[in-house]
Amino acid sequence: MNKIIQTISENLARDGYHYDPCFEPNNLSLTQKKDMFVAFASQFGEIYLSESESVLQTNPQPTAPSWMPFDRSAQIGWHNDFTTKKVRPRISMSWIVNQDPQGPMKGGWRLASARDVITVIRGMNDGVERVARLAQPIFPFGYLGGGAVKHFPILKKADGDQMRFYGRALREGVRLKTRQIITKPELLEIVQIVENAADMVGCVKPAHQSALMVVDNTRSLHDRLPQTIDGKQLLRMALLCFVV
């Protein structure tokens, strides 16, 4: 197990993410899987959520609200987790305990290194100035259902490799009443630039039964492809765990 921890840590430092197509066999009960997953995640640090929420279980369904995008059918879009929170988990983990009935590419993962995304943006016309702009604390992160907006930089610093990004949170944040630090057209243009850059450098990984995704929430972006949300068959289920 120590070798696995070391490998994941090395991949997070290098790429910002780790993918394992077959993390653990599924011959455990759901309760046992949750306990095992928490024990595994705890080797990387303190669990981010409360003890009662130490593991979140996805439940795809047609009636899932907008604030539970992991249970909806639509692709989530490039993001890292808890972008509206000042204190975020350093690491997010997703472990597939039931793959999508239509195959592992339904609900598959997209992964992109933040370093690679920033490199693409820096290489654009006016890229250096653009990156400097992304490092300013002017970007409104929020949700229409939540009401509050918080302003953060998308890049922690212009010469670094750490990002805070979620297209949806930025698009909705700029629609809420907020200080006009940045215009809506500029904000939407920047969101599109980041998403296009991630499309260029990202990869797609299938969400096989037992597959594991681990991401550094500042050094990578990730996404979940469209998934099945109805029918009588067993749907895609992932266990989610977050580490400070």
Report the sheet with the most strands, covering strand number, pairing sense and barrel closure: 5 strands, antiparallel
State the oligomer.
Answer: single chain
User: Terminal Cα separation, in Å?
Assistant: 20 Å
Supply the number of helical segments: 6
Percent of residues in helices = 25-40%
**Radius of gyration over alpha carbons?**
18 Å
| SS strand fraction | 15-25%
Query: Could you give the count of β-strands?
Result: 10
> What's the number of domains?
2
From the coordinates shown, what is the CATH architecture of the largest domain?
A: 4-Layer Sandwich
Strand-pairing-aware structural class? alpha+beta
- CATH top level of the largest domain is Alpha Beta
Gross geometry? globular
Strand adjacency order, main sheet: 1-8-3-10-2
The CATH H-level homologous superfamily of the largest domain:
Clavaminate synthase-like
Kindly report the CATH topology of the largest domain: Double-stranded beta-helix
Mean pLDDT: 94
